[in-house]
């Protein structure tokens, strides 16, 4: 090593704040007293976690580094986990995620953003009017959901303003379950579909997500805007998802009620991270036919020798179903 090199090194060390790369002691931290909580929302570096039945505010421990913590995560917490006013716990570990719903800001965005962990159902909320439905958005949400291994549910709101018939016909061949709502509508069927599940609600701004969440969970007060319990400030536009526990079903009071994870309205749903194979894997009939496709077949209209076309010609697959599937995977906005 040249003297000059040493000098530079010393200089750099002097200029930069010392970074502690090792724990202070050789004793590995013992987190046997850690408790596990579910992250229910995130606001400016503060993670609200539900431990048993109380909320605990936590920060992310330094050893997690850049590893993200997202809503729905099961996190191990140490420190003051009492949840008392002014206390802060630390998240030291995130347990394995059974599922991760992701999106990219747009299709060219190289960074996929995990938004919710551990969900098993994706509720695509679309207004029948005001704002008018956009099938491109519905399709993109469905694709992201299939990619993440979530079961889809299409929820059409504002049926008082326009008929759902056209959309129902469009999605019928995909066998996506649909719920139709309007002000004061009976939500019993929707409640049963949500019972015991972890359902993420996604959709454009203004489609009526908050209205629906408030109808399902009267104590949610979503339309008023979440009052920030940390700062005590009133309405602020949250950019994070928010997990809310559903009330128990009246006819099944003993069943695990399930969760709704409301997400802020989004303008688009980028899909640059999505794998075609995983999407077609969500459709058993199409998947078994597509095994005969050429390697790396896009399965889109005009894809050379796509086995899905041959199946329609043979009469093994309905043209409407293939058309619906192709419309969904064709990612025009
Ligand atoms: N006519 C009609 N209006 C509705 C219905 N559901 C909600 N609205 C209205 O639509 C507007 C938007 O509803 P929100 O529940 O705030 O929509 P949101 O999807 O939560 O919007 P963001 O919070 O921006 O994501 C409000 O004025 C609601 O009163 C419905 O079924 N019919
Ligand atoms: Zn194909």
From TrEMBL:
Residues 108-269 form the CP-type G domain. Residues 1-18 have a biased composition (Basic and acidic residues). The keyword Glycosyltransferase does not apply. GTP binds at residues 157-160, 203-211. Its EC number is 3.6.1.-. NCBIfam families: ribosome small subunit-dependent GTPase A. This is Small ribosomal subunit biogenesis GTPase RsgA. It comes from Microlunatus soli.
């Amino acid at each position: 090593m040249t003297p000059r090199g040493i000098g530079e090194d010393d200089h750099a060390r002097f200029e930069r704040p010392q970074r502690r790369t090792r724990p202070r002691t050789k004793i590995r931290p013992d987190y046997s007293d850690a408790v596990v909580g579910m992250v229910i929302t995130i606001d400016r570096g503060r993670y609200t976690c539900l431990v048993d039945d109380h909320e605990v505010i936590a920060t992310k421990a330094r050893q997690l580094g850049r590893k993200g913590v997202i809503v729905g995560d099961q996190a191990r917490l140490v420190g003051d986990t009492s949840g008392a006013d002014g206390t802060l716990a630390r998240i030291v570990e995130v347990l394995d995620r059974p599922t991760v719903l992701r999106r990219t800001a747009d299709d060219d965005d190289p960074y996929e953003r995990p938004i919710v962990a551990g969900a098993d159902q994706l509720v695509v909320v679309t207004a029948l009017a005001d704002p008018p439905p956009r099938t491109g958005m519905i399709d993109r949400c469905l694709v992201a959901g299939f990619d993440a291994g979530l079961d889809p549910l299409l929820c059409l709101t504002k049926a008082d303003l326009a008929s759902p018939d056209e959309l129902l016909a469009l999605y019928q061949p995909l066998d996506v379950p649909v719920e139709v709502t309007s002000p004061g509508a009976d939500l019993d069927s929707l409640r049963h579909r949500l019972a015991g599940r972890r359902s993420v609600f996604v959709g454009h701004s203004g489609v009526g997500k908050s209205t629906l969440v408030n109808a399902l969970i009267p104590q949610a007060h979503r339309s008023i805007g979440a009052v920030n319990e940390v700062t005590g400030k009133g309405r602020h536009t949250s950019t994070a998802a928010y997990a809310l526990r559903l009330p128990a079903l009246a006819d099944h009071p003993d069943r695990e009620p399930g969760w709704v994870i409301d997400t802020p309205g989004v303008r688009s749903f980028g899909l640059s991270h999505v794998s075609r194979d995983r999407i077609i894997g969500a459709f058993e009939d199409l998947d078994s036919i597509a095994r005969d496709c050429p390697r790396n077949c896009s399965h889109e209209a005009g894809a050379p020798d796509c086995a899905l076309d041959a199946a329609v010609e043979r009469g093994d697959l309905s043209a409407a179903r293939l058309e619906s599937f192709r419309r969904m995977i064709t990612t025009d906005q």
